Amino acid sequence: MKISLREIEASETEFNFQVSPEEMDLFSPEVEFLEVVETRVRVTGSEKQHLLDTSIETKAQCKCSRCLEPVSLPLRADFKLILKSCGPFAKAPETPSEEEDLVLVADSDTSFDITERVRGAIILSLPLKPLCREDCRGLCPHCGANLNLKTCQCGEQKLDPRWSKLKELM
Predict the structure, then answer these.
(1) Taking the domains of the chain in order of start, what are their residue ranges?
(2) Is the pLDDT of residue 19 over 50?
(3) Exposed e or buried b for every residue in 133-170, given b needs 16+ CB within 10 A?
(4) Cα Rg, the chain, nearest whole Å
(5) Average pLDDT over residues 56-61
(6) Cβ(82)–Cβ(102) under 8 Å?
(7) I want to staple 66 with a disulfide (CB 3.0 to 4.6 A). Which of 34, 37, 125, 136 is the partner?
(8) 8 A C-beta contact, residue 21 and residue 32
(9) Helices (DSSP H) in the chain: which residue ranges?
């Protein structure tokens, strides 16, 4: 997803991209991406400095962290980025700047690739513990039954004999 720096107008320019997850190297054994990644970049600014306001949308499927049922997740992410010109004869630095949201580009550069930043934003938008619903009861730790679908019969009856003396104290 390259933004052509030559196409940016003085007022506002918008770029729209639709890229498949495979093209963005979005592979994970836990997550399957169901739709293309839609990215909208609105560029505003002046000749020497541009603000990139980026919004991303896609859909993914993973397993609930409690009951292991499939969960479909709409993913949305936003980030802003400032592109600043570093002069006509200067080269853009090889190492990233201290400020993550500020990127120095040489005047000789004709485009700026945002693919890695979009990929990172998608990965960061994935929930750490996806749930099929807020009140998911999960799996029974004894028999493995899905407690959302049925009540298991094993209950709390199985007590480790090593803890029986503590049970007597209560």
Answers:
(1) 2-134, 137-170
(2) yes
(3) eeebeebbeeeeebebeeeeeeeeeeeeeeeeeeeeee
(4) 25
(5) 94
(6) yes
(7) 136
(8) no
(9) 115-125, 164-169
